[in-house]
């Protein structure tokens, strides 16, 4: 074999070993990100004409090799129309990093933004920091409780005025894997002002997800938002939304 052939064989051998090494490293990589995109649409025609549209997006995954930092992102957009008039329009976007310090103990760092025309929020930003504990940490059921501090910045639609205050942030989150193809998850947040705990904001979201095929699922979502002291004329304290959508996982 000539010199060129020997060099080519050596190159192929080194290249093969390199690919083998990369394959081994790939096995040790943390799990890929996962999430889902969901669309919901309903129409009613007859004595009353109404329509509603919803879009939800969620993606979360580890951002370090030790899997101690989990980054979760979510967006929910709701739009409703009744007799040609807009009856609901809201957007929630949140990004949160959970830092696992022990098997059950973690801290979190979160930024949440809300825009809700019918709650008179032109914008509502909530940066927050806190700590939590996993009360139940089983394969099929997890229950977490956390608490921290948030700074709430609100700008109102009707007047353009702004308001800001410091608040406590108390949270609870449940994930229950009912079966191989079904999951129920629920999250509750209560955000009372430090200076006046009787002035608070509450948000409850519950999801029931049932798989149809490998990547497709039916997703039922219940959202309840409550503002104890709404600002603006005719603004109601409580808003409830029920969404049925088709979800695709990735």
Named at the architecture level, the CATH assignment of the largest domain is Beta Barrel
CATH class of the largest domain: Mainly Beta
Q: What is the fold-level CATH name, i.e. the topology of the largest domain?
A: Porin
Sequence stretches where pLDDT stays below 50 over 5 or more residues: 9-15, 23-27
Give the percentage of residues in beta strands.
over 45%
Task: Give the termini distance in whole angstroms.
Answer: 51 Å
The value of Rg in angstroms is: 24 Å
- The helix-strand sequence is HEEEEEEEEEEEE
How does this model look, in words?
This protein is mainly beta and 250 residues long. It has one helix at residues 3-28, and strands at residues 34-44, 50-62, 69-82, 85-100, 105-116, 121-137, 141-156, 162-179, 182-192, 200-211, 216-227, 238-249. It has two domains: 1-30; 33-249, Porin (Beta Barrel). The radius of gyration is 24 Å and the shape is globular. Mean pLDDT is 88; it is low at 9-15 and 23-27.
Helices and strands, with pairings:
Elements (H helix, E strand, L loop, with lengths): L2 H26 L5 E11 L5 E13 L6 E14 L2 E16 L4 E12 L4 E17 L3 E16 L5 E18 L2 E11 L7 E12 L4 E12 L10 E12 L1
Antiparallel strand pairs: 1-2, 1-12, 2-3, 3-4, 4-5, 5-6, 6-7, 7-8, 8-9, 9-10, 10-11, 11-12
């Amino acid at each position: 074999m000539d010199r060129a052939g020997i060099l080519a064989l050596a190159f192929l051998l080194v290249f093969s070993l390199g690919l083998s090494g990369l394959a081994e490293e790939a096995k040790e990589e943390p799990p890929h990100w996962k999430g889902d995109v969901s669309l919901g649409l309903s129409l009613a025609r007859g004595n009353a004409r109404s329509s509603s549209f919803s879009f939800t997006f969620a993606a979360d995954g580890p951002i370090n090799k030790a899997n101690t930092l989990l980054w979760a992102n979510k967006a929910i957009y709701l739009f409703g129309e009744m007799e040609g008039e807009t009856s609901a329009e809201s957007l929630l976007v949140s990004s949160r990093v959970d830092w696992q310090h022990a098997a059950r103990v973690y801290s979190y760092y979160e930024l949440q933004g809300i825009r809700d025309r019918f709650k008179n929020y032109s914008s509502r930003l909530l940066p927050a920091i806190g700590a939590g504990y996993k009360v139940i940490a089983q394969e099929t059921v997890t229950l977490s409780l956390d608490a921290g501090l948030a700074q709430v910045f609100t700008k109102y639609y009707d007047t353009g005025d702004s308001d800001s205050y410091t608040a406590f942030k108390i949270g609870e989150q449940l994930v229950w894997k009912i079966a191989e193809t079904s999951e129920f998850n629920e999250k509750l947040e209560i955000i009372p002002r430090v200076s006046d705990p009787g002035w608070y904001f509450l948000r409850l979201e519950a999801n029931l997800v049932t798989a149809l095929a490998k990547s497709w699922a039916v997703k039922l979502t219940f959202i309840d938002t409550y503002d104890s002291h709404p600002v603006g004329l005719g603004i109601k304290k409580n808003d409830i939304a029920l969404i049925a959508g088709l979800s695709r996982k990735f």
